[in-house]
Amino acid sequence: xxxxxxxxxxxxxxxxxxxxxxxxLNPHVHVLGDDSAVxxxxxxxxxxxxxxxxxSLIYVVxxxxxxxxxxxxxxxxxx
Length: 79
Prior knowledge:
Layout: E1 9-11, E2 16-18, E3 20-31, E4 36-48, E5 54-69, E6 72-78
Antiparallel strand pairs: 1-2, 3-4, 4-5, 5-6
C-alpha cells in the first residue's frame, strides 16, 4: 500500500545520496467497524539532482480501505 521510493544513488566526491525520498504525511484513520477502516494520507516524494539539491517535490493525496485478517492489515480498495 505504501510504496517505497527507488534506491538509486547520487554520488559526489565524498558521499553518496539517495536519488529520491518518500514520506507519508498526515495519516488519518477512520474506523468503520471491528475489522475495517479507511486510511487517508498524503505522500511526499522528493527527487534530487546530481548536485544533491531538491529537483522536484510531488504531493499525492491518497486513501485506502483496509480490514484486519488474522491480526494483519489487508488492503481491500486503494484509490
